[in-house]
């Protein structure tokens, strides 16, 4: 075997690769970069020499033919077929007391190796998320007594295992044992693997673009631009453990970004939120449907829409499924929902915005009052929050260890907090920061206002989740129903937003179902009611009688991000799309 005589070149240490990542993340100043580079080179050389010394010392007395030669190396079909017939294929999370002393086969990523002298290598194996276990490859000596069926593990095998590049995908055969003491660094802490065979199925490069240690730290910077660090930043980082990286570095190293347990926990919560949304609405009689992404008219008004040539006309990417939710109600459905992409051509470089996000949308018939819609949306969101608490406690805890956050305060059932827009503004004027003394009831809230309101509500009502109802007419789109009871000179709508930790996560309300009223509002808002798409939209309400209805749109990315108090919504998306970032 090639490995026997030509062991792989020593791998870069985690620290070196981490330093590479720091440089990527920070874009060092010239002086700091040179200094760091020289230091890294010196350390790499030192590590290489040490490895060479161990290699010479450890192999000089060994027989020419490695007796363990078929138990390690790059995987081949023959080697993979050599696993013992009685070894059980297991996943790390399924290992239990019943496996102690038994042979198992695991396929996992090797996340770390550590040599202890020449006779023992510790290897950490990780499956999805943070499911990791400690493995030990310990030399048994080369001579084998006759009739001894125990596998031989040579020092060469130990050395080889200890030099596998981190993040290679491997398969091992091992006996499950109890460690002397729980292995604190691994989630599977009560068991360890005594490895007898180890094969690399897919090798990682010697140097990773971003180490796992860096990938699993809090992202430091969300700008789409490379940011120059302050003088001495690298030295400071070096002192405080593995360096963190910017969002750009994370996205440029998408595989390591996605492999990090913290990102996988965020993704798991995202999946759970979708299930919880779907389950709750299905239980309440809602039917799922798929609105189109390619549409012929901007559904949220003319601005902020991606336009593209479409044969001999223009098409747009849907800014929301608004029209289509309403068409479903007009088309004889009483309650509908959809989960799908929403596109906004906004040059908004904020932690709250992306050019593509996932909308959780619903629409329903109103029997008596649009507060039926508000209650349903409160219900589904509280079901989501409580569901995360119940089903994702381990993920939340893991995420909090990287992105610390305060416990989310939720209202007791029946004690949900609903303020009117005017009440919210009054609260801000009277009890909010000085700069909000003059906020008006007829103007939309700014983001700092929303955050200040969130803090006031938390303080006063002990909840991080609440609704603000009756938004002023000027702050809502043309399909929002104006409250017939509002003052003509201060019109408000039957429309609301919902907030989580002081940030908007939902917009909803009653829609106009009467075609004449709708046409008048569209005209009032400065949109031509005869323009393409709009004419057809109004026409739908003329085709047959449409019941009063309302609904809402929830931003999935924001629900996940603000529930977890992440610094940016970009962390909650699988592949965040921003004005400057379309790849990967
Ligand atoms: P904002 O004022 O924060 O830009 P909006 O009022 O334009 O949001 P809506 O059109 O009401 O938002 O969309 C419904 C929901 O979709 C919002 O409450 C939010 O959760 C989410 N959302 C809206 N725009 C974005 C975006 N650009 N990126 C991520 N989520 C968004």
TrEMBL record:
Report the protein name in the record: Probable aspartate--tRNA ligase, cytoplasmic
| Record domain Aminoacyl-transfer RNA synthetases class-II family profile: where | 269-584
User: GO biological process: what's one of them?
Assistant: aspartyl-tRNA aminoacylation
The UniProt keyword set, sorted, is:
Aminoacyl-tRNA synthetase, ATP-binding, Cytoplasm, Ligase, Nucleotide-binding, Protein biosynthesis
Family label: Belongs to the class-II aminoacyl-tRNA synthetase family. Type 2 subfamily.
Compositionally biased residues, Basic and acidic residues: 34-52
Supply the source organism for this entry. Hypocrea virens (strain Gv29-8 / FGSC 10586) (Gliocladium virens)
Which segments carry the region annotation Disordered? 1-69
Task: Enumerate the subcellular locations listed in this protein's record, separating them with semicolons.
Answer: Cytoplasm
| Reaction(s) catalysed by this chain's protein | tRNA(Asp) + L-aspartate + ATP = L-aspartyl-tRNA(Asp) + AMP + diphosphate
Question: What does the record give as EC number?
Answer: 6.1.1.12
* Signal sequence residues: none
Q: What is its main location?
A: cytoplasm
Composition-biased stretches, type Low complexity, lie in 17-30
Can you provide one Gene Ontology molecular function annotated for this UniProt record? Answer: aspartate-tRNA ligase activity
The enzyme's first-digit EC class, named in words, is: ligase
What is one Pfam family matched by this protein? tRNA-synt_2
């Amino acid at each position: 075997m090639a490995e026997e005589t030509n062991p792989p070149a020593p791998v870069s240490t985690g620290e070196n690769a981490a330093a590479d990542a720091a440089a990527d993340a920070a874009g060092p100043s010239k002086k700091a970069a040179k200094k760091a580079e020289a230091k890294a080179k010196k350390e790499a050389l030192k590590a290489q020499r040490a490895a060479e010394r161990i290699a010479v010392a450890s192999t000089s007395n060994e027989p020419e033919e490695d007796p363990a030669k078929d138990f390690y190396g790059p995987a081949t079909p023959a080697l993979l077929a050599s696993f013992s017939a009685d070894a059980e294929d297991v996943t790390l999370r399924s290992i239990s007391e019943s496996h102690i002393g038994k042979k198992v086969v695991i396929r996992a990523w090797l996340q770390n190796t550590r040599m202890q002298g020449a006779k023992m290598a510790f290897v950490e194996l990780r499956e999805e998320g943070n499911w990791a276990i400690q493995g030990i490859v310990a030399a048994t000596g080369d001579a084998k007594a006759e009739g001894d069926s125990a596998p031989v593990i040579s020092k060469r095998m130990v050395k080889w295992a200890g030099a596998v590049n981190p993040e290679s995908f491997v398969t091992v055969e091992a006996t499950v044992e109890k460690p002397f003491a729980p292995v604190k660094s691994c989630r599977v802490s009560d068991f360890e693997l005594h490895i007898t065979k180890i094969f690399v199925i897919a090798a990682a490069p010697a140097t990773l673009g971003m180490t796992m240690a860096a990938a699993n730290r809090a992202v430091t910077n969300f700008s789409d631009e490379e940011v120059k660090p302050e003088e001495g930043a690298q030295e400071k980082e070096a002192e405080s453990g593995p360096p963190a990286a910017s969002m750009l570095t994370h996205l440029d190293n998408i595989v390591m970004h996605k492999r990090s347990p913290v990102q996988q926990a965020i993704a798991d919560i995202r999946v759970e939120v979708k299930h919880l949304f779907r389950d709750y609405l299905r239980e309440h009689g809602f039917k799922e449907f798929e609105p189109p992404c390619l549409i012929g008219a901007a559904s949220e008004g003319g601005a902020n829409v991606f336009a593209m040539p479409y044969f001999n006309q223009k098409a747009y990417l849907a800014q929301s499924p608004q029209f289509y939710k309403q068409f479903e109600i007009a088309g004889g459905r009483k309650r509908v929902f959809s989960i799908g992409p929403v596109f906004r051509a906004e040059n908004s470089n904020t932690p709250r915005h992306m050019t593509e996000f996932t909308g959780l949308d619903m629409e329903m018939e109103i029997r008596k009052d649009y507060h039926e819609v508000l209650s349903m949306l409160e219900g589904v969101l509280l079901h989501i929050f409580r569901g995360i608490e119940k089903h994702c406690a381990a993920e939340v805890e893991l995420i909090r260890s990287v992105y610390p956050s305060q416990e989310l305060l939720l209202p007791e059932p029946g004690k949900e907090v609903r303020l009117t827009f005017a009440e919210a503004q009054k609260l801000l004027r009277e009890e909010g920061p000085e700069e909000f003394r003059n906020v008006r009831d007829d103007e939309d809230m700014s983001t700092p206002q929303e955050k200040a309101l969130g803090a006031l509500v938390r303080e006063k009502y002990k909840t991080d989740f609440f609704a603000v109802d009756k938004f002023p007419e000027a702050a809502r789109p043309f399909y929002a129903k104006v409250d017939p009871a509002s003052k003509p000179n201060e019109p408000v709508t039957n429309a609301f937003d919902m907030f989580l930790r002081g940030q908007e996560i939902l917009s909803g309300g009653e829609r106009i179902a009467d075609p004449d009223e709708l046409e008048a509002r569209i005209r009032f808002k400065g949109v031509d009611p005869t323009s393409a798409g709009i004419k057809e939209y109004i026409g739908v309400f003329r085709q047959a009688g449409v019941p009063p209805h309302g609904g809402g749109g929830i931003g999935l990315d924001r629900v996940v991000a603000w529930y977890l108090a992440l610094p940016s919504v970009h962390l909650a998306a699988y592949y965040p799309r921003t004005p400057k970032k379309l790849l990967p």
